[in-house]
Structure formats: C-alpha cells, structure tokens
Design a protein that fits this description.
4 helices, 123 residues
Length: 123
C-alpha cells in the first residue's frame, strides 16, 4: 500500500502538471488538458505499478498487462472526463477542485484494479 501511495504521488504529478499548465497558461480547454494529462500519467502509471509498486519483474504476462492497462486508461479517461464535466461544466466547481474530487475516487478504484492486473500469476 505504501508503494502504491508513493508511486501514486508521481502519477498524480505527471497528470496535474500538464493539466494545470495547459489549462492555466496555454488556454487549453480543461477537458482537452485532462486527456493529455491522462495519456502521460497512464504511461508513468504502467511502468511504476508493474515494476515498482507490485514488484512484477516478469515479462511473461506483459502483453496482457499492457492491454489491460490501456483499457483501464481509456476507461479512466472517459470516467474522468465525464465526472469532470459534471463537476466543472454543470456544477461550476473550479477545474482543479473538480479534478481533486475525481482523482480521489478513481485512485481508490485504481488500487484494486491495478493489483489484479499486475499481481504475479506465474506458478
């Protein structure tokens, strides 16, 4: 759990940095910025979760793990965008406040799904 929390901090930073910079300083729409942040953090997340958090050095299941991670990232990007649109676009929360709420929800779900994807399945 501690490794997940620490790697989560790096993953969150890899999401929020482009999300904030693109939205705040480049004038990019917050939902478009969230997609860019999602792509970057998905790559960082895969590498950290597989090799460090869950210490799965085996390449035996890497194809399954990569496909599952891409599907997870796509699902999370859609869920993130949908929840963010409701919180920011409809309820008029500040885009960072909305993202913090969404990140908290998706972070908990991610722990359980990532544990299933990256657990060592070799006998």
């Amino acid at each position: 759990m501690a490794r997940f929390m620490m790697s989560g901090g790096v993953v969150i930073a890899s999401y929020y940095a482009p999300y904030y910079l693109l939205t705040e300083f480049c004038g990019v729409w917050y939902l478009a910025s969230s997609v860019v942040g999602s792509i970057i953090c998905s790559v960082v997340n895969f590498i950290l979760q597989k090799f460090w958090t869950f210490e799965n050095k085996s390449l035996a299941n890497v194809h399954f793990q990569a496909i599952a991670s891409v599907l997870l990232a796509l699902g999370f990007t859609v869920a993130n965008g949908g929840m963010l649109y409701i919180l920011v676009g409809k309820l008029h929360l500040h885009y960072l406040v909305g993202q913090i709420i969404v990140s908290s929800i998706l972070g908990v779900v991610s722990y359980f799904i990532s544990g299933w994807i990256f657990r060592d399945k070799t006998p």
